[in-house]
Amino acid sequence: MRAGRKSTFAAAVGLSLALSTCALGQEPLNPSSVNVAPPLVPSQATRELRFPVAVQHGGGWCYGYLHGSEDRVRLEIVQPQADQGLSFEAPRAEVVLRQWIILGQPQEAIELKTRTATYHLRWLANPTEVNTGKARRWAPPVSLAPYALIMAMQNPAAVLAQIAANAGNTSPNAGTAPAPAGPPSEAVPASSAPAPNADEGPQDLPTGMLAGVYVSTATADLKPSNTQYLFYPDGVVMNGVPQEGMLNFDFNHYRPQNNPDRNWVGRYKVEGDMIQIVWINQFSNPSKPDVIERNETEAHPPVRFGSRVFIPMCRCTEKRLSGTYRWGAPAADQYVQFFPDGTFIDHRVMDQMMVPSPFFDRPRIQRGTYEIVRQTIVFTFADGHRGARTFLAPKVQQDNPTFDWISLGWHMMFEDGYAARLGR
């Protein structure tokens, strides 16, 4: 938003947090070979990070760079010239940012606030749009997931140090910073015990507690959705999961004691098939909790107007898949085909799902192998490069060779047979 326009202040940057990494950690996966994040570009003139961004304001767009150093944050608007007055520079302590949320739904955009203005930014998948992006456009530019940018801006010095340390590395990711897997830090009262991994719930779940990812495929007004909640057996729930995978996701990292915005996470209470959630920013007035339903037995539970039904997702470690899963409209002829021998055919999907990609405008047909571990699917392509996405599918179908649908990160894909039964 333009400086001086009326807005409210949002989530603080957690300066005290250590930067988490996206290393894949355990064998047989090789962390250096997984392409989970684009490079974070250090400015040559000063010790600062630089991200190409698009700024949405008043129905239009402008383009430039978001810079972050150890003590300063600045936004540099490159074009159009008429919007260069939006540029600012401020001490880090006076700038806060988070992922932008609209009506409870996370966007692939960043909300940045200073003492006098609010900005909504998108991290450009195509950096050349800084100079070529149009001021008026019907659809937003293709954006990168905001998590890595947000976390890097929390501790630019650490990221810059790691970039410098990697400068002599000849691996495919040389010169890139580690990418945090997950949303920006938000507050839940600190726990003395580590939170369990998303795919490693306790053998004996406490009565009235849940563990794992639950998804709702329809909103309360019956519109399609892909709302993802992550439940923990200590009574905490998180809104949204990282799309880049869960291999090194550390929920404790997002539970600092100090956070003025206090959303993203909440406390839940299970009463039969009903779940009451009080999001942390409601703790001072918990009289109207968010009420949802759960269905543990159906992949397609009936939905009713005014209600949201969530179903559990399978953990699916070492699962082998079958079927063809469509990306977008059938006419686009983009799909991923899985085989039970652990191989796949990517028919022009991954070059547009895992951005930035030099082949975004001309996606390829690729082959390779896949592996599912810790609720993450890792693709190893024939040319040796790798990519990862959080893998979600209905738990009640986990023993079937084919799911009706899967979700790769935030992208839901329907299997051909199921789509045919629906008359799609």
SSE diagram, text form:
Layout: E1 41-43, E2 48-57, E3 60-69, E4 72-79, E5 88-91, E6 96-102, E7 105-113, E8 118-123, H1 129-132, H2 147-154, H3 156-165, E9 212-218, E10 224-231, E11 236-239, E12 265-271, E13 274-279, E14 290-294, E15 309-312, E16 323-326, E17 335-338, E18 343-347, H4 350-353, E19 365-373, E20 376-381, E21 386-392, E22 405-408, E23 411-415, H5 416-421
Parallel strand pairs: 14-15
Antiparallel strand pairs: 1-2, 2-3, 2-8, 3-4, 4-5, 6-7, 7-8, 9-10, 9-15, 10-11, 11-12, 12-13, 13-14, 16-17, 16-23, 17-18, 18-19, 19-20, 20-21, 21-22, 22-23
Separation, N- and C-terminal Cα atoms: 40 Å
Helix content: under 10%
Shape: globular
As for the number of domains, it is 3
Question: Architecture of the largest domain, according to CATH?
Answer: Roll
What would you say this structure looks like, in words?
With 424 residues, this protein is mainly beta. It folds into three domains: 31-165, PH-domain like; 212-312, no CATH class; 323-421, no CATH class. 8% of the residues lie in helices and 33% in strands. The chain has five helices and 23 strands. Strands 1, 2, 3, 4, 5, 6, 7 and 8 form an eight-stranded antiparallel sheet that branches. Strands 16-17-18-19-20-21-22-23 form an eight-stranded antiparallel β-barrel. Strands 9-10-11-12-13-14-15 form a seven-stranded mixed barrel. The two termini are 40 Å apart. The model is unreliable at 1-40, 169-202 and 256-262 (pLDDT under 50).
